[in-house]
UniProtKB/TrEMBL annotation:
Family annotation (Gene3D superfamilies): Bordetella uptake gene, domain 1 (3.40.190.150), Periplasmic binding protein-like II (3.40.190.10)
Taxonomy of the source species: Bacteria, Bacillati, Bacillota, Bacilli, Bacillales
Domain of life the protein comes from: Bacteria
Protein name listed in UniProt: Tricarboxylic transport TctC
Record family assignment: Belongs to the UPF0065 (bug) family.
Native species: Alkalihalobacillus alcalophilus ATCC 27647 = CGMCC 1.3604
Database matches in InterPro entries: BUG (IPR005064), Bug_dom1 (IPR042100)
Length: 328
């Protein structure tokens, strides 16, 4: 299948803008910090970036202000190209699994290895839901039928084929023994995915937990399973949603959101930001924000975050290759 999307050409990076070194030998920024949200206002990247910036400023965690700049386009590729070209430690960006997908399917020349992972802050999860009167009550029942006739079930998501909604379903179907090359996935990026399930046009939606839970709370849908490693806590309804693992499906998919810097950050620059984002994650103010948005805490420092990204990228590369979506 051919992917149509914005291709960002690789250009030469500019020299790193230095900042200052204080008397203790620590790096400090010499002006305010931009957190780039590589999407329009209102989405997950934008919300996370703004909540981080607000917490840092209100809790006085930095001597410099943190602001958010939106650079939408290309599924994130426009913002990543901006960061890579400037190569300035005063410019950071928020990202999540599309940083893998857009690179691996050839829509951007930049992947996570082209930047400096600073810290992961939160985890969100996906969900697989069907209409309330659907014939399946569990993921096990759904995948049992799909092992026999995978083409008889239609799956819808907001993301394009080979991207997040599609691939989180593929990961679970593959672990359940379904022939993933025969799964019928429909991309509806115009906001009609949920409606298509509710009116019976398609069978299953692959989406975020919060979106599926909203319809399930209203009695319109059943959530067959979520991609978290264990049941979610802190909300009586969310605690009722079963994981794939408890249904015998050895798969999980974390919708992480983390902070990255430009490619050529020094150890001193990285240390400065790691300290700030760890303090942000540990703050009571950000804990309240996590609860407000239903985000799980999943802080990882730069080293742990890089290891996690390596592992997730390797898993996704195998599946994308099997589906024919891997870049040449």
């Amino acid at each position: 299948m051919m992917f149509l999307g914005l291709i960002i050409l690789v250009g030469c990076t500019m020299p790193v803008q230095s900042g200052t070194i204080n008397e203790e030998g620590e790096w400090e920024p010499d002006r305010s910090i931009e957190i780039i949200a590589p999407a329009a206002a209102g989405g997950g990247w934008d919300t996370t970036a703004r909540m981080l910036a607000r917490t840092i400023d209100e809790e006085n965690l930095s001597t410099r202000g943190f602001g958010v700049v939106n650079k939408p386009g290309g599924g994130g590729a426009v913002g990543w190209a901006y960061i890579h070209k400037r190569n300035d430690p005063h410019n950071l960006f928020i990202s999540s699994p599309p940083l893998h997908f857009v690179y691996l399917n050839g829509q951007s020349p930049y992947g996570y290895e082209d930047f400096t992972p600073i810290a992961n802050l939160i985890a969100d999860y996906g969900a697989f839901a069907v209409r309330e009167d659907a014939r399946w009550d569990t993921l096990d029942e759904l995948f049992a039928e799909m092992r026999e006739n995978p083409e008889d079930v239609t799956v819808v998501g907001v993301s394009s084929p080979g991207s997040m909604d599609h691939m989180q379903f593929i990961m679970f179907a593959e672990a359940a023994g379904v022939d993933i090359t025969k799964i019928r996935y429909i991309s509806d990026q115009d906001g009609g995915a949920m409606t298509a399930v509710l009116n019976g046009s398609v069978d299953v939606i692959s989406t975020g937990v919060s979106d599926a839970a909203e319809q399930a709370r209203a009695g319109k849908m059943k959530v067959l399973g979520i991609t978290a490693p264990e049941r979610l806590q802190g909300d009586e309804f969310l605690e009722t949603l079963p994981t794939g693992k408890e249904q015998g499906i050895e798969a999980e998919f974390v919708v992480w959101r983390g902070i990255f810097g430009p490619p050529d950050m020094t150890e001193e620059q990285l240390a400065y930001y790691e300290q700030i984002f760890k303090a942000t994650s540990d703050s009571e103010a950000f804990e309240k924000i996590r609860k407000m948005y239903g985000w799980d805490e999943q802080y990882m420092n730069s080293t742990d975050f890089k290891t996690f990204l390596d592992e997730q990228s390797n898993d996704l590369e195998v599946l994308l290759k099997e589906l024919g979506f891997l870049r040449d």
